[in-house]
Design a protein that fits this description.
CATH architecture: Sandwich
Protein name: gibberellin 2beta-dioxygenase
Largest sheet: 8 strands, mixed
Pfam families: 2OG-FeII_Oxy, DIOX_N
CATH superfamily: B-lactam Antibiotic, Isopenicillin N Synthase, Chain
Radius of gyration: 22 Å
Structural class: alpha+beta
GO biological process, one term: coumarin biosynthetic process
Order of helices and strands: HHHHEEHEHHEEHHEEEEEEHEEEEH
InterPro entries: DIOX_N, IPNS-like_FE2OG_OXY, IPNS-like_sf, Iron_ascorbate_oxido_reductase, Oxoglu/Fe-dep_dioxygenase_dom
Distance between the termini: 82 Å
CATH class: Mainly Beta
Helix content: 25-40%
Number of helices: 11
Strand content: 15-25%
Catalytic activity: gibberellin A1 + 2-oxoglutarate + O2 = gibberellin A8 + succinate + CO2
């Protein structure tokens, strides 16, 4: 009888180990066990994101208007600039990226993330640089700093001209080529509306400095108040986001968090820290987050429009809100703050000190 019980326990343990090895989900509860164990009350220590928020539509801009003649084109550009000032976020339709490419990107992304966790950790089917696969929050010191998500963060250099190694590679290259053109177009429009030199972005934001990030947010039934991505601002000029219909993206508007209603026809654009500094606070880099879903996993693809590390960010107007700084200096300070405090501080580090 004892032998039978022992054999049963051994069999159950073997099944659990096999399930863990074949599971696509990162081992969050194992890796961050101390964060959960050290909390007197796990639910109380997590951020209060359980309140059901009303979903809001982001400003919607039809980019076809850019080809309707001078008057309508100018109105469209002003709408883009206004949304960047008042929201820091907007969504675009007729953006030049076909529904077929977007749907194929989603299918390939799902296939990639359905691979076992151990396989993703050592993914070698594409020419991704070391460290491209990321999950959780390595610097988290408490539960509210933990992001329940995984991602492949890939330089455009690793994507463009990859030779079509497989269907994922081919699709990523098609998507990245079109989305980079879109980001360039929008950045030039925003520069023009400031009366600034639009060629700046073509010179500084090149494939070696821009990134594509494939995101997956596993369902989180155990801790439904967990962040998928903790609150942050983006450190680039612009981010272009394609998301599914699950929802979960939230941002700060007029001092309070609001939920963004998904629109399957649109891509979401948001202003990053560099554009806020470059525009002398005209355009706003807005804090945003993703909340975990207790029942459904969520997928999104983000394109980050970034300059070279030696690119100097300055507003070119007086009085300037921020000191001039290079993108490399900015990244270094962000990384230092994350290591020390567990979160990014960002632009306030570079404010001109009043005397």
């Amino acid at each position: 009888m004892v032998a039978s019980v022992n054999n049963s326990e051994h069999l159950n343990q073997s099944v659990r180990m096999e399930d863990e090895e074949s599971s696509p989900d990162p081992p969050f509860e194992i890796k961050y066990k101390n964060l959960f164990d050290n909390s007197n009350d796990t639910q109380k220590s997590l951020p209060d994101i359980s309140v059901i928020m009303e979903e809001h539509e982001l400003p919607l801009i039809d980019l076809n208007r850019l080809s309707f003649g001078d008057f309508e084109r100018d109105l469209c550009k002003k709408d883009i600039a206004r949304a960047s000032q008042e929201w820091g976020f907007f969504q675009v339709i007729n953006h030049g990226i076909s529904r077929d490419i977007l749907e194929e990107m989603k299918r390939e992304q799902v296939k990639l993330f359905k691979k076992p966790f151990n396989e993703k950790s050592n993914y070698k089917d594409l020419n991704f640089s070391a460290g491209s696969y990321r999950w959780g929050t390595p610097t988290a010191t408490c539960l509210k700093q933990l992001s329940w998500s995984e991602a492949f963060h890939v330089s455009l250099n690793d994507i463009l001209g990859s030779g079509g190694l497989n269907s994922l590679s081919t699709t990523m290259e098609q998507f990245a080529t079109m989305v980079s053109e879109l980001a360039q177009k929008l950045a030039d429009i925003l520069a023009d509306e400031l009366g600034r030199k639009s060629g700046f972005f073509k010179e500084t934001c090149v494939p070696s400095t821009c990134y594509l990030r494939l995101n997956r947010y596993p369902s989180c039934p155990i801790y439904p108040r967990m962040f998928g991505i903790m609150p942050h601002t983006d450190s680039d000029f612009l981010t272009v986001l394609h998301q599914d219909n699950i929802g979960g993206l939230q941002l700060v508007k007029d001092g309070r968090w609001i939920a963004v209603k998904p629109n399957p026809e649109a891509l979401i654009i948001n202003i990053g820290d560099l554009f806020q500094a470059w525009s002398n606070n005209v355009y706003k880099s807005v804090e945003h987050r993703v909340v975990a879903n207790a029942l459904h996993e969520r997928f999104s693809t983000a394109y980050f429009f970034c300059p070279s590390y030696d690119t100097v960010i300055q507003s070119g107007v007086e009085p300037g809100v921020y000191k001039s700084f290079s993108f490399g200096e900015y990244r270094k300070k962000v990384q230092e703050d994350v290591q020390i405090f567990g979160h990014k501080i960002g632009l306030p580090r570079f404010l001109v000190q009043s005397h």
